[in-house]
Specification:
mainly alpha; three-stranded mixed β-sheet; 219 residues; two-stranded antiparallel sheet; 5 strands
């Protein structure tokens, strides 16, 4: 798999969701109904649905709260580009704002459960960003080579954390309930194929995991 954070594809359509009501907000936050939570507005119905379902299942968890807060605070911009080199990926827009890019063609071909795990994988990167693990203060002051080197490091660190984080394992179980524990063990590695955390496994283990993921519509 290409790194989660991929090179900028060039001119595209990054945008901030409409801050007005416009059907994009729903009531949340308990009985008073005074908190308006924005729903995802990615300009892609399939991606909107996947993120909405994850928020419904994980909204009270730390990873769900991060996504909701970024939607509410408009610090997550969605953008599509047919030349984006992978299904989806994140690129800093500033020290506080992240661009969430996706390839609409690849999005159309992925299975529903594959998209669920892909979105959760992205949410984990956002969770790490929100916790200051890879907050970038001077992104646009770096050269392109420095940016790429930093993105590779971030990607590798996040993947290492993902496969070892018991919280991520629980979030997988909540997102796709009812599977045997052995399958969640495979799903921890979804999105890491071709990166060091996966490549460092034994050949037999890599074949076991990748064969299961691809056979079952994951990535």
């Amino acid at each position: 798999m290409p790194p989660l954070v991929a090179p900028d594809p060039g001119p595209g359509t990054p945008f901030v969701p409409d801050p007005g009501d416009g059907g994009n907000n729903n009531s949340g936050g308990g009985g008073s109904g005074t908190t308006n939570n924005k729903t995802p507005d990615t300009r892609n119905d399939k991606l909107d649905k996947a993120l909405e379902l994850l928020l419904a299942k994980l909204g009270i968890t730390e990873i769900g709260k991060v996504l909701q807060a970024m939607l509410n605070g408009q610090t997550l911009n969605f953008a599509s580009h047919e030349n984006f080199p992978c299904l989806m990926g994140l690129l800093p827009a500033s020290a506080e704002v992240i661009n969430f890019w996706y390839n609409p063609n690849e999005l159309n071909s992925i299975t529903e459960h594959g998209l669920t795990v892909a979105c959760l994988h992205e949410m984990y990167h956002l969770y790490r960003f929100d916790n200051g693990t890879w907050r970038i203060e001077n992104w646009f002051g770096l050269t392109s080579d420095q940016q790429q080197a930093l993105l590779i490091t971030i990607n590798q660190n996040d993947h290492q954390a993902q496969v070892n984080d018991p919280n991520y394992l629980e979030w997988l179980k909540e997102a796709l309930p009812g599977s045997p524990d052995s399958e969640y063990d495979y799903l921890r590695y979804a999105g890491t194929i071709g990166t060091p955390v996966f490549d460092d496994l034994s050949s037999s283990r890599k074949n076991e995991i990748s064969s299961w993921l691809l056979k079952n519509g994951f990535f």
